[in-house]
């Protein structure tokens, strides 16, 4: 029946307690004669009611208002390793800075006061841990946490609103640490 179809359609959008739902956007990128389809995701919550306007005997129209707490669609996760004392070019193909949602920095190995620097930003974005890291630790940018038992109070940053960031396009990123260090950093991010 029409009523059952309408209820099934409403159920696609309705969630309990205003939970967010996944939205997917497909975009076709053209480079010369080559076309690539790219998928990006975002979160949204229903922002109003869904009520039909009857426009005929077996026809109606309706509108769905969605609210996005974060206005970006995000591409697939990228994972880039930065060896100690090496500059690595990291490309952020997004439309804005990658610095929050889906971004983590992992430190691996023995690192004495590790310092991660993106020299492509003005001023440089600098992330420093004031102390010794002796195994694997992960900084989560959106949660402002560090795992592995390291002290959150030892994290310092400058040059970026969040702990660290990557601008759209190429970024020159370097990991340094005090003498006696051996290890790497891994940056995980989703281009906005």
Question: How is this structure best described in words?
Answer:
The chain is mainly beta and 192 residues long. Helix content is 6%, strand content 47%. The longest helix is centred in the first third of the chain and has 12 residues, at 2-13. The mean pLDDT is 86.
Would you summarize the structure shown here?
The protein has 192 residues and is mostly beta strands. It has one helix and 16 strands.
Distance between the termini: 42 Å
Mean pLDDT: 86
Strand-residue fraction? Answer: over 45%
Uncertain residue segments: none
Oligomer: single chain
Helix vs. strand class? mainly beta
| H/I helix tally | 1
Based on CA atoms alone, the radius of gyration comes out at 22 Å
Which terms summarize this structure?
six-stranded antiparallel sheet, mainly beta, five-stranded antiparallel sheet, elongated
């Amino acid at each position: 029946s029409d009523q059952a179809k309408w209820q099934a359609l409403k159920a696609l959008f309705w969630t309990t307690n205003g939970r967010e739902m996944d939205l997917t956007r497909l975009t076709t990128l053209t480079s010369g004669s080559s076309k690539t389809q790219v998928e990006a995701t975002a979160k949204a919550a229903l922002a109003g009611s869904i009520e039909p306007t009857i426009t005929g005997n077996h026809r109606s129209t309706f509108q769905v208002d969605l609210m996005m707490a974060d206005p970006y669609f995000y591409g697939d996760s990228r994972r880039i390793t930065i060896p100690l004392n090496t500059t690595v070019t990291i490309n952020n193909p997004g439309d804005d800075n990658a610095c929050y949602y889906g971004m983590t920095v992992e430190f691996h190995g023995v690192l004495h006061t590790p310092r991660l620097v993106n020299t492509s930003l003005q001023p440089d974005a600098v992330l420093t841990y004031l102390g010794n890291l002796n195994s694997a630790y992960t900084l989560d940018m959106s949660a402002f946490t560090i795992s592995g038992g390291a002290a959150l109070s030892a994290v310092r940053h400058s040059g970026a609103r969040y702990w660290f960031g990557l601008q759209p396009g190429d970024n020159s990123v370097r990991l340094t640490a005090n003498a006696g260090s051996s290890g790497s950093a891994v940056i995980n991010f989703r281009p906005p």
